[in-house]
Protein 1
Amino acid sequence: MTQVSHHPWGEWPGQGTVDLWVVQSPQVKVEVLTLGAIIRSVSYRGKDGQMGDVVLGYDNLEGYVSDKRYLGAVVGRVANRIAKGRFVLEGKEYQLDVNNGPNALHGGLRGFNKAIWLATAVEGGVQLSLTSPDGDQGYPGEVQVSVSYTLQAEELTVEYQARANKTTPINLTNHSYFNLAGQGVADIYDHQVSITAQSYMPVDDTSIPTGEIREVKGTPFDLREPVLIGPHLKELQGPGFDHNFCLSSPREPWTEKRAARVCHPASGRVLEVSTNQPGVQFYTANFLDGSIAGKGGCRYRKHSSFCLETQNWPDAVNQPSFPDCLLRPGENYHHITRYTFTTGSDIHKPPHEN
């Protein structure tokens, strides 16, 4: 049985009231904010029987209002990067806000993460909806968006839907940062990760995909079998993972499939992710630098957490060989991702790691 409740959490001056929704099953408790459709917390038991919150965030509304790292938020209209913030659609060039080096990131300077969504109760959870007006952050067309969070036992289902009155790119995801050890833990080096991708996307020095789809075999991006994150990060060139892993080929229909599994042997906590999206961006919090004071005053530093952002491939609007990211009038965008939070006492070390 899932219980759903809500109450006002704070007032954003000039913008409105932000509510906190609590969705709780016997196994898992999830908190959701109407600001940014943010997952504020996910709590479940470790093998010691103690509940632990595994999502990074803030103690108060002010933290989320000023946040620039998208903690827990739904990002859009287009998640990830668009090269130079430009694209051409139906013969017209669109220029977006550039907010990540030379590129547009996660919808712009005031994306969906900074909007207050309208929330309504649904069976087993909450649905949040938003109208993005024509021209919002430079994007064409009015878009009606909804995201629902529903909880059944240990499984959290996140379902995104959208409709537009003009053709527009769309790519929605949730940007939660996870640490399965709980709050106040310095890093994720003792986590094990596996991602069921045969290929990944190399990027240029501004994190835009080069267009190549490269096999993971024989590279540090081969995560098909579980690896310990700490030693594995040392094999990578650069600050860490911030790459799209290809879960399907560009022309395959969207069907739900297993994407990733992360476990933390010390606590016994396990997170499994499945999705109908063609990619997952695995990000190891490379740009958290200790300047953010999060829950309980904890400083969030580099490699303190990980994100598994299920989504279309980055910069798809500019790369015709990538999966189609355009939403046309009369069509329905439908993205579903499931997070399963369990506890195992029989977790073993992965092979080849000491």
Protein 2
Amino acid sequence: MKEVLTNPTSGYYMNRDVFGQTGDFITSPEISQMFGELIAVWLVNEWTKCGRPTPFQIAELGPGRGTLMADMLRVFSKFKIAGSDFSVSLVEVSPYLCQVQEKQLCPSQAQEATEVPQGSQHYKQSISLYGSQIRWYNHISDLPRTFTLFLAHEFFDALPIHKLVKVNQGWREVLIDLNRENLNLRYVISRDRTPACLYSLDSEKREELEVSPQSLVITQMMAARIHQDGGIGLVIDYGHEGDKTDTFRGFKNHKLHDPLVDPGTADLTADVDFAALKWAATQPRTFEDWEANLTYGTVDQKDFLTRVGINLRLEQLLASCRNVNVARNLKSAHKMLTDPMEMGSKFKFLALYPSVMKKILERYPPPGFV
């Protein structure tokens, strides 16, 4: 998965726009501005609960085209959140998408990025339409140490997985091999245990499962930053609570595609194991004062968006709309985002908080989750 998706020369995400009607899949921010607006309002509300600490940053993992961040920054500007006390950090490995994001978020496509100081952790920087500093990073570990609003929308589903199956001899890993007769790729089962089989499986009831060590490491890094520097995390993705088995698949031209056929031309994905992410976020680390981070969720997208006011936002937009086609598109977008048969039940929301927020959250639970 890592090689097919992020190979520097021919990786799926590295040199093309894969989003939208002309790409291979559509994400919620591309459907309607309402999605990003409500996420922004939620983040501002939770930041306020924390005492509105400054300086602070919003860090998005895998920002896509930058559409979600653009909608959020517009809302942040309404709350007068901009300037030197607020910055945007984008974790992006694709040079092509980095350029797309800059065109989306910065005043003009012709704007040249400001020079990156030597020795900096970021590889690119620019100024947003609203005056905030935007910096691009290769990895979450490179982000500045400050209060952070973490956002990961459809990020974890693209991280590599290991597929394990239970056979008579115990757990074995499903690997990908080359059939020398026809030179096609094929699945094979490892002869012996592999390092991935060291994953804790003693109480596992499933006969088959997918594990993503990279997802667990990144979640622990996020949790550690939240614990040490302060912050909040919001993860949005399609996934399950540790009960699904075989979800590895490909998408091409908005249709299912065999992952082993024409690698590099289709998106590869697997449902996110939210139970594993919650485990990773709450595990003790080496801090002397460690108390497990708090997690809320998962909740379905339809429930989260409804609770934070998408119906009211739709009414507001329709009331100011004078174009019949635009009004119809708004209603269609609302349905796609919230209908259980569309995205409403497919996507899940998970929130992470530092343990010091426990008493506040007991009194003022996070909207969207209750």
Protein 3
Amino acid sequence: MELDLTPKLPKQVYGGDGGSYFAWCPEELPMLKEGNIGAAKLALEQHGFAVPRYSDSPKVAYVLQGSGTAGIVLPEKEEKVIAIKEGDSIALPFGVVTWWFNSQETDLVILFLGETHKAHKRGQFTDFYLTGSNGIFTGFTPEFVGRAWDLDEGTVKKLVGSQTGKGIVKLDAGFKMPMPKSEDREGFVLNCLEAPLDVDIKDGGRVVVLNTKNLPLVGEVGFGADLVRIDAHSMCSPGFSCDSALQVTYIVAGSGRVQVVGADGKRVLETHIKAGSLFIVPRFFVVSKIADPEGMSWFSIVTTPDPIFTHLAGRTSVWKALSPEVLQAAFKVDPEVEQSFRSKRTSDAIFFPPSN
């Protein structure tokens, strides 16, 4: 059966006055189920509040747009109230309870990528809401709720029945939410637009990698992530994950072309990609991208906490390591052609600006 790697846009799952929740569907993007990957997006309007919930999957959250407040409660820990803004990445392990709030006029948009190996449904997240019309209180009888929290019947009815919203609600403009604490960001958030660059190629591109060193919670979610930005017409070198990891890529901004090559030298994807689309590169498949005139940026997770990539162009590529005789025999070319091939791309760059 041929793999369908076509990039897809998400579909709205639910929403209301306060915002909407979108998700990528495994039926439309089969690699989600194949790779046990979940992908979703939360968009909150002004005063939109995503009520407290937990998930059946570990995730990485990336703030695509706007600013707001996040509440995070790790198991048996105190609540962290964090100011979030565009470029922030947050690792969300199993068992973490979160809520999200937008007080600003600009919509707050957050991307969620994660693994679904232990999820109820392969290829998609299932959230469990603590409040609202589909919250856990609604499933228990008033007797159980009253006994568990030592409440009288009247209080139980108010507690269970007052919030009729589902997942996302809109708060009154004057309602005061908890104020974020600057110290709460430490260890929970890494801003990929402000963090030290792991790769910086003049007129080529830049990379920030999330790993266990700069965001320790990455080790608990079990996979790493990165933000890549390439300049106009630049190319991201063909490469693959050499530790059997999947690459899940969301186009944050700009547009460009992508090619993916799999087994037997077969090109399995050749398409134009644009902001908002998501695609998945299978294990060991080789991928390369070229940006359009406005450049292109993407946020990816790789299904291992400290990913290792092999690039097939540049000074550190495998071609430079192989002996000349091996290349001559493998390509069936004379020494002159082999030397011409070897002498190109002598820098460590993984991004190549357009030739002048």
